[in-house]
Structures are given as structure tokens and as C-alpha cells.
Amino acid sequence: MKGRAGVLYLVKQHVEYRILGPIDVLKRGVALDLGPHKQRSLLALLLINANRTVTTDRILEELWGDEAEGKENALWVYISRIRSALGADPSPLLTKDGGYALAVDPGSVDFLVFESMTTAARKNLKDDPKAAASSFTDALAMWRGDALEDFRYDEFAQAEIHRLEEVRQTAVEDRIEADLRLGGSGELVADLDALIVADPLAERPISLKMMALYRAGRQAEALRTFERFRRTLGEEMGIEPSPELVRLEEQILLHDSRLQTTMRSRAAPIDAEAAVNPFKGLQPFIEADADQFFGRDRLVADVTRRVAEQQLVTLVGPSGSGKSSVVRAGVIPALRKRTPFPARIAGSLHRWFPVLVLLSRSRPRCCARRSTHPTASPSSSAMVTPASCGRRCASSRRTRRRS
Length: 403
What we know:
The protein has helices spanning 37-48, 56-64, 72-86, 110-123, 129-140, 158-181, 189-198, 203-215, 219-237, 243-253, 297-309, 323-337, 349-352, 391-402, and strands spanning 15-18, 24-27, 30-31, 54-55, 93-96, 99-102, 312-316, 356-359, 381-384. With 403 residues, it is mainly alpha-helical. The strands form three sheets. Strands 1-2-3 form a three-stranded antiparallel sheet, with no helix packed on it. The chain has a three-stranded antiparallel sheet with strand order 4-6-5. Helix 8 runs antiparallel to helix 9, helix 8 (203-215) runs parallel beside helix 10 (243-253) and helix 9 packs antiparallel against helix 10 (243-253). The longest helix has 24 residues, at 158-181.
């Protein structure tokens, strides 16, 4: 029968087959007696392979294993009893091609209907999240327990149990994403925590939880969620989170406005014009980063002034203290903006650049000092450190006193 959006919904038909929970067969709404466990196992195996032939040899192997020899008669008895219980004429349980097949209408089998509903809802997730959320909710309501609950310890059912549980978890995640797209936030965290407990290494629930927390104004918790997952992933698997999850962390750090208005199954790439992360780690800033370079204004101004006054300026500091960044993203852009340039550097800056000498020292020298460069005269050179006039300045003075 057709339901909303043309999706098949399970309704009371002549016979209904249900395995999303304990196995159950309803005939005109009345549950049938399916007999002992082995007989129900045979019916479950045929339902898992609905409308497909299961060979006799496979049935014997799946249900009896090493004890399959001589069990053909028992199998025929169970086939006969199932046909009697279903009571249809002709029987949907067919004998064909050296085995048996259960012929069913896909709309009468709960797990087939569930998969049809979730597939259709997933197509509406972006364009119509309200309809998608409703469809996912209706589909998930069909579950009456764990898949094939009667057979949780039977070998023949393990692969299908695992597959159906994966399909169910994906549907729960999709429903939560639909709710996020509709403006949901903190109220979804409990459902996500249950998914994370069930599979601590699954990345999508982490992504959705980070989004839900951020939407609820809990940025710090969202970032802690990422950090815990990163640590767990490293300890358990020796790997790092995916680039998509790392991008989501960056968006949360930057308060990317798009996180409040849209939700994607994967974090959206960051548009350089929309949001720029000024943190570059150990990578030096270059001239193109001038607009994001900050915190060294006094030092840049001091070096720029000295360049106009001295023939040689030496920038001294320990490796990694930011000498190259100060010159490339601070001093050079500042010099380009000066009008007029000092006469001696009025030409191209790339020819002037060598007059800035970068030296690494184990201990930075604080404040401007005269250079002892052999080619520089005392009146025409200066030495500046990246620590000058900043917080590291006081630190370097304390270090010298202790030594």
C-alpha cells in the first residue's frame, strides 16, 4: 500500500512477516503458532532470503551444522508444518531448484518495508527534512526489539542481525540529522550518547553530537567531545580523525555562522572568504597573510623605523620564535604601504630584502642592540629580537637573571 511520499508502509495485509524483534507472522492480525525453535529458525532463514531460493544443502548446513547428516526428513517435516501454519493456497513456501523459497510481497515483510522507507526518507533529507524526520520516526517505530531477537546466538542469523543493526543505527543518525536541520540541538545529545556508547569509534555520531552541542551554545563541550574522540581513536587504532571531522572542529572554533543555519552529513569546506583561521602552527606567515598577522605591531613598527634609519638590521631570536613571519607578514607589507619609501629601497623590495638578516640564538636578546656584524658600522646597524616589546621580553629577562 502507498503512503506519504509514495513510500511503502506496512499495513494489515493477509499475512505479515516480522523479524525486527522476535520473529512473528500475523494472519489477518492474528499471530500464528510457528512451532519449536528449529522450525522458527527455518522460517527466519527463508525470510532473510525472501523471494530467493535457499538450497537444501545450505539449509541443513545453516541449521544443523556438523549434525546435518540424516536430517532431511526433519527438514521436510518442518517445511510441511510451516505450509500448514501459513494456510494459503497455493502456499507461498515453494519447492524449486533443489531447495525452497518463500514468495512474499515486499510490503508484507517488516524489514523490507523499513529499508524502503529509510531509503526514500534519505533522499528528502536535505530538501525536506521535516518529511524525512517523520518518515525516519515512523520507520524506527516498526522495531519491536533487537533484530531476529530469538536467534541472537544462532550462527545462521549473525550476518543479518549485524546488517540490520547497522541499517537501524544509520536511520537513527539520519533522523537526528533531520532534527538538527529543523533546529534541534541539546535535546538530541542523549540519543547520540547512546550511539557513541554502542560504537565508540564511529565518527558520524561524534560529528552530530558536536553539532548538537554547538547549536545549544555549548561550544566548549563540543570541542571536548572532539578531543576525547581524537584521543580514543589514537589509543585504540593509532589513527587521526578524518579531515571532515577536523574541519568541523575548525568551524566550531571559528564560530562559523553556517553552523547555525545548515547541517551537512559531512562538515562543509571552509570558504576562505567566509572564515579564516589565523593559527598556522609552526608554518611561517607570508606576505599574503598580512591581514591575519597580529600581536607584533610594536615590533613591526620598531623594525620598520630602524630599516629607514639603518643600513643593516638584524633580527635575532631562537628557532621558531617568529622571525620570518615578522619580516614577511609584518615588515614587508608595512614598507609597501609607506609613502614615500626610504630612498635607498625605493626600488624593488626583493632586492632590498637581504638587508634584513635573521639569526637564531639559544637565548633571545631583549630590546634593540647594536649589531657586531663585521660589515656594519656602529652607527649604521641595529639588532632586534622578536621578543622585543612583547610578553617574551619579560620572560627572557627572567631567564638571564636565573642564569
